[in-house]
Every structure is written in C-alpha cells, then in structure tokens.
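Slide 14.
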Amino acid sequence: MTELRSGSSTDTGKVRANNQDTLLVAAPLFAVADGMGGHAAGEVASLTAVEALKAAFADKRTPGDLADAAADANRSVWERAQADPKLRGMGTTLVALALVQVAGEDRLAVINVGDSRIYRLHRGELEQITTDHSLVQELVELGQITEVEAETHPQRHVLTRALGVDPEVDIDRLEILPVKGDRYLLCSDGLPREVSDNQIASVLRRLARPAEAARQLVAEARAHGGNDNITVVVVDVVDDGDQAAAASEALAEDPGVVIPLGIGEGDDEEATGSRQGPGRRHRSSSGAERRAERRAERRAARRTARAEPTGRPVTLRVVGFVLGLMALLGAALVAIGVYARGSYFVGVTGENLTIFKGRPGGLLWFDPTVAQHTTLPVTEVLPSRIPDLQSGKEEATLADAVQYVRNLEQEALDHGIGTTTTTSTSTTTTTIPPSTTSTGAAPTTAAPAGAGATTAAPPAGATPAPTTAATTPTSPPAP
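Slide 15: predicted structure.
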C-alpha cells in the first residue's frame, strides 16, 4: 500500500501582470502547467491542458494511461486554439506525477513536455528526473555551452517542445519505484530560474510538511527576483508498502545494484493522501537497462585491463606522415576560421537589433559573437525586413552592418514609424546562435489549484502581448 501526501503553492511573482501557471492536486494525480501566449491565451492553454489531463486520467491507473491523457491534453489545447483566432499560437508546458499500477504493483509514472520540472529528493540528495525541452538544454547536450552559462543565456526562454503547438507532440515518460521517505517536487520554470538546486534541496530537507515547503520555495523565488510566475507542488511518499525492502531482497544477488533507501516519514498534516493497491517488489525496465549497461561497462573495463600492448615500433616515416597531416589540418582550420569569422550580420537579440561577427548559424565550432548592440527595437523596423533579420542579414564589414542598421532606422522614419536611435560601441564575446531569436517572455495569470481541483485566475486587466521565439518554424515560444 503506497501513501502520498502533498502540498502546493503558486504566485504571480513581482514582474508579471497575471499568472499563466495552473496546478493540479487530485491524488493520485499531480501536475503543473506553465502557459504561454498573448493576452489571456497562456492561462487558457495551461488550464485547458490540466483539465483535459484530469478528465482523461479519471479512473485510469497505468503509466500508458497517463501518457494517453497527456496526448489528449495536447489535442484539447490545439483544437481550442484552432477554433478561436485570438488563441492561435498558444501553448503550455506540462509535468505530471501519478501513482499507478503495473501488474498489480505500485509505480510512480512521470510525463514531461516543455521546461517545467520534476525533482526527487532521495536520502537528502536532489536530482532532476525530467529533461528540459529547451534550446539551451540542447546546446548543453551538444557541449556548446555549460550548465552555468545556460542559466543566464539570452535564449533560455526558447522552448523546443510544448503542448498545443502542433496536433501531435512527443511526450517523455518515466516509471519510478515509490520509496518511503522520497520527496518529489513539481514546479514551473519560475522556481529554478530564481533559486539554485542547492537552495531548493535545503528547503526540502529542512521543512517536513509538504505545504510549508511549497510555500517557502515560492517565497524564496520571490525574494530572489520573482521575474516569472512561480508554481510548486511537493509530494511525499509516506508509505511504500515495503516495496523498497522487497526490491532490496530480490536484487541482493546483484552486487552492482544500489537499492535506494528512504529518508524518513512524510508530512501527515498537509494536503491529500492517496492509497492504492498492494505494492511489492519491482524491477523497472529502465532500472534493469541501466544495470545491464553498468555490468557491460565493468566487463569491458576488465577486458581492457587484461589486454597487453601489441603496437608496432614507430618509424621516422610514420612520424613524418603524422606531422605533415597535422600541418595540413592546421592550415585547413585556419582557413575555415578566417572564413567563419570574416564577415558580419545583423540579427535580433531580445527586443533590439544586434550586430554579430561571424556567419549566421555559425560554422562548425565557430559560433557568431556579438560585435555591437543597438538600441533599435525590432518593432520599429518595417515588417518586410524582419525575415532577413531573423535569418541574419550579412554584411562584409562592421561599418557596412552599422550603416545597414542606420538605413533601417531611416527607412522606418520615412514610413512614419519608430524614433531615432543609435548603435552602442560596446563589444562582447557572448556566443549567441543567430538562427533562433528570442523576443522576450510572456506576461501571465492563474491561481493555485486546491486539492482535487484545477484553478487558473482570470487576467488582471489588459496586459502587453508578448513576442515569441523559436529555433525552427515548428519550435514553440517560451513561457
């Protein structure tokens, strides 16, 4: 018998005019959605997704049911956007955690689309168990930027996947064995963008009651800036029906397997409880795969350790060949570098035009860098020029690029739009892939959902329409 208890909190933050987050606490199902879109579209998207998820998952209890419910949520958002021109382009992230059963045994099923996150605190150690579907995460995985650089990257708001943007969407799935004492955190990106993982872990370790921990995390995010909506759901595994002990016993013969142990009782005063059928031993398919990989790695390491060197003596001819090849490669790299860095282009960063040094999209590992920032907003450029700027308008020299910006400026004034601006002379070496532009994040409004319900507050008056960014024509904008 597995028992869960939870607590939740949400806040508009200090900057946004409304809250486009929606949360769900309806044991055994918990979810957080972060909407995006102009005016009220973001909150409509997140509320539509959560309500559709809850309805589709009602009376269902398998991991596949949760994934199917998320697919239904995607179609609901898509169809509503197609039916109302004012809602076109809206979308939402979604993370959900549900207590399900597999062959009569308890599991925790997780689904994820977008950059909202689920963390697990196990034996005092915090780990992120979902993967962000964002441009900066892809750059991190490609090795182009570090995780530290990703935290302040100008295009960190750009999503590569979201619900409701297309009629079909890929949904990440995960199954986890519930372990007594484990604590799960579902949150919108307004929390990790303001509070570090170490600070999050500290709060989760220190406060035993889920609702108190949720409120404190929201308060921490506000105190560190509150630049976005903040939504948090904390779920504790209070009892696992001795599943962890049974799994330890079943897998004791495999010395390469480490069985996770709990960190103590969960909160027994806050939020809701959930009890499912009997839970016993389980070996998840993902866990079995990881164990098989570790065994294969150990066998390969032993084979390598036993292998004896069999190389042939190195001759002068071989040395000469290697040196000649290295010289040729060096010359080729120099030529590529000269070509890759030998021009400039005008693109868009944030809300203004920017002059970059390099080639649009970069060449090999030679990424473009910012040569000059300008104060000319993209909104004060003729619409016919926007496609060229988004793909990067190439110029031979920096002076030519500066003159091109001035021409755009004058052209806009001649057509009765815009005001006189100037280009700055500051330079930087920040690497920014120019093929994707980010024009800011959307202001947002929704209220927290109580136990067993979804909520999203109406917009607080007229709000500015946000602009969006994407890495490809099908890439969704950021929340």
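Speaker note: The CA atoms of residues 206 and 213 lie 8 Å apart.
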